[in-house]
C-alpha cells in the first residue's frame, strides 16, 4: 500500500470531534477509525497493540539491535476539527500542479487559488490532494497517521535498518484540546516522543503559548429605566468600560511571532449581568504571569469604583509553553533537524502561536516536540496536502530512528 492509498483510505472515516459531547472519544467515528487502525497494525506485525476504552491506540515496533537505546514514540491524532465537516470527504489528486487556480467545486465556484494561498506556488509540479470544496480534507492529522504507519511498515520490511524500540500512539480529541488528558504516558513508556502534526515541509516546533482563560462576570443593578437615576448600574456599559481598559493593540489581529495578547472571545449579557470571556496568551512565562496580573488589576479598579463584588473573575491556566521541558534535552530537536537535513528537508524551527497535545504531554512527563505532517490550510475546505510532503515526513521518521539508535 502506498502512502497515498493509505491516506485516502483514512480520510474516508468521519472522525470530526465534538467539544460538547462530554465523552471520550467525543464522537463514535473516532472509535471506528481506531478499530480499523488496530487491525491494520496487527496485520503489519506490530506488537503490544492496545486500544483502551477511551480509544487511545498504542503499538510497538520492537528493537532490532542489542544495544540499549532510548524508546521513542511517534504520535498523531485520530480526530478532525469541529470547524468543518469531515463526513463524506471526497478527495481528488491534482497531478503535477501547474501553479494556477484549482477548481474544487465547479457548481459552487469554490476555487483554491495561489492569489489567496501563495503557499501553493512552492508545490508547483507536485501531486496535490485537495477536497471537493465542501468538507475539510483531514490531512490534519491523518497525514501524520499515514506517515507513521508507512514508516513502521518500511522498517518491518527492511530489517537491515537498525533501530531501538519504537512506540506509536494515536489519540482522539486533539482538536478539542483533550488529546493528552487521558494519554497514559507511563503505559506509553517512552523517553521522549514526536507528534507528527505540524503543517508545511520542514516545520519543527518545541515552543507554544502559555495559556489561560479569564471569565469576568459583571453584576449590574436593573431598575425601571423611568426611575433609574442614580440607582441603575448597566452591566453592559461597565463591560464596555472594562474592555477599553485592556491594551488596545495586544490582540491577535495586532500581534505575531513572540508577541502575546488578550483575546476577547465571548460576550453575553443584559442590563443585569454581563459575562466577558478572554483568553490570554504569551510564550514568555513571566510576561504571561504579568498579563494575568493586569486582568486582576482591571477587575480591582472597577470594583473599587462600583463597589466590591460588582466584578467577579475566574482565571484558569490552560496549558504552558513546552520549551522549559524540551530545553534540558535539546538533542531531541537536534536529532529531528539532522534527520530532516539528511533527507533533503530544510528544518524550519518556529514557535507555535497556539497549543499542541505535545505541550500537555511534555508537562505530563513525555517531552514531545512537533514535526511537520505536510498538510496546509488546516480546518477548512481549502485544506490540501502535497504527496511529496507526506513522503518526506515518512523518510524523516525512518531517518530519525536510525540516528537515535546510532548515537
Ligand atoms: Zn492536528
TrEMBL record:
Q: Does the record carry Metal-binding as a key word?
A: yes
CDD domains assigned to the protein according to its UniProt record, in alphabetical order: M20_peptT (cd03892)
Hydrolase: is it a keyword of this entry? Answer: yes
Q: Where is the active site?
A: 79, 174 (proton acceptor)
Which molecular-function annotations from GO does this UniProt entry contain? metallopeptidase activity; tripeptide aminopeptidase activity; zinc ion binding
Family annotation (InterPro entries):
ArgE/DapE_CS (IPR001261), Bact_exopeptidase_dim_dom (IPR036264), Peptidase_M20 (IPR002933), Peptidase_M20_dimer (IPR011650), Peptidase_M20B (IPR010161)
Q: Any one Gene Ontology biological process term?
A: peptide catabolic process
**In the Enzyme Commission scheme, what number(s) does this protein have?**
3.4.11.4
> Which residues hold Zn(2+) 2?
140, 175, 379
Q: Which SUPFAM superfamilies match?
A: Bacterial exopeptidase dimerisation domain, Zn-dependent exopeptidases
UniProt-annotated binding residues for Zn(2+) 1: 77, 140, 197
Q: Where in the cell is it found?
A: Cytoplasm
The record's Gene Ontology cellular component field reads:
cytosol
Name the UniProt key words of this record, in alphabetical order. Answer: Aminopeptidase, Cytoplasm, Hydrolase, Metal-binding, Metalloprotease, Protease, Zinc
Cofactor binding mode and count: Binds 2 Zn(2+) ions per subunit.
Lineage, top-rank taxon, reads Bacteria
The record describes the protein's role as: Cleaves the N-terminal amino acid of tripeptides.
> Would you tell me the protein name for this molecule?
Peptidase T
Q: Gene name on record?
A: pepT
